[in-house]
Structure formats: C-alpha cells, structure tokens
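Extended Data, panel c. Modelled sequence:
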Amino acid sequence: MQHEPHALPRPAGLDEVKGWFHNIDQVLFDWFLTRQNARGQKGDLLELGVYMGKSAIFMGQYLEDGQTFTVCDLFDSPADDAANDKEMNKSYSSLTRTAFEANYRAFHDELPTVVQGPSHLITTAVENDSCRFVHVDASHLYEHVHGDIAAARDLLGDDGIVVLDDFRAEHCPGVAAATWGAVATTGLKPLCITATKFYGTWGAFEPVRTELGEMLAGRDDFWHGAEEVAGHSMIRIDGRKARIPAQPASRYERAARPAAAVAPSSSKGLLRSLLGR
C-alpha cells in the first residue's frame, strides 16, 4: 500500500511556520539588521541550523542587493557522528529540505544558498570575513557548538554580530559551555541576552552597545537591565511582553484571510519607522 505524500506547507503568516522565534528576538534581529543596513555595513547573512525556516524567513527580508544569504542544515542527510545523529532523530525526524524550501518560497521569490550537511562544512562554502550577521542554531552538543562559534568568528567581517541560540536552556548545557567559553577565551563581547539567545561581537563594542541601550530605553513593552560580564556591560532583557515587529508578507496571505484583514506589506522604511530610526 502506497502512502500519500505529505502536502507542502502554505503558511499565510510567519506565525504558521513551525519553530521557535520569540517576539523579543524578532525585535532584536530587526534592530541589528536594520542598523547594519542603515549604516551601509557590507557583508552577507548566514544561519546554521534552520529547522523549518522561521528565523531564516525573517532574516531574508534584510538582504541587500549584491549580498548572499546562506543557510546550513542536515535536513534529510545523516549526521556524521552517532551523538548528533541521535539528537537529530529524536528532535527533528520530520525535517525535510523540501518543507523548508516551501516555507521560504511562501515569503521570498528566491531561495537562500543552501548547504546541506553538518555545520562544519560551512567554512568550505562561505569565505572568511564575508558575513555581517551569523545566527547559530544547529547542534546542541558542546563539540559542535564550539566549532560553530569558531567558524562564526572566522566568517564574520569587521563589527559583525553573532547570535547563539539555546545558550541557557536546561537541556543544552553544551551550548552554555561553548558560549561562555568563547567569551572567556576568544574575545567575544556579550552585547545582550534574552531568554533563549545570546548576542555578541568580536568587533567594536561601545557604539552598538550604546545605540542598543538607547533603543531599549525607548521601549515600554519589556524590561532590561545591565550586568558586568567579562569587563563589558551586557544587557539582560525580559521580553515576554515584547510587541512583534513588522512581519514578512506571505504570498498565501490574501487567499487565507479576508481582504479587509490583510495588513500592508512590510518594508524597510516601515521597520525603521517602527523603531523610530
């Protein structure tokens, strides 16, 4: 008996894409990427570990002409070691590249460059010093995260931003060890943390930290405070009540929702106006 193939996803909005991407982290991705674009900062975008594409779809709207967005994931490929293979089979057994691509195409005309395989391959696919923003959300195993952080350091250009996911989740102690180990030994400067993500840079700290603090001070939808960490004033953010920023528009939105309920398409100008920039 043959099984019917699963229907491809047709998300009418980002909230319909499976995955974990909290409002506060959307606010921060929006702020960092919009700031880079407003300053004319050169460089490409990179995400290690994409699951069904939720954060990749969000990142894709900040890609400028002449820039490349690269994503790396195992998708349906076997992992190259037993521990990683066990983690993938336990948590992401339904993950397929086809589903990711269908989700991404719902919001963008062109797919990012896809590297299918373990994240350590990324240094053979992306040039050193070529990226301005790297989101690391692949394996939760210390050895792999340690390698992903080292790769991010090599691939980021001047004043690039790295974001590390699950750095303090109780089920991911390896991510925490790799994150704070990098702060202690590689010169990674901690800019801010949320409930799930760490934001840092190996580049200039004070300019971006000052502007970030000013933006946060002008918001009334979350709490933030400063903490001295490794000689730097890192910002802690409680963003459980954060207002969601402008969302990328899905090509299926009009078909799924009444015309009167359809919001105008987002734009970079709208994103900047929402942030008061």
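The CA atoms of residues 184 and 230 lie 7 Å apart. This feature is highlighted in the accompanying rendering.
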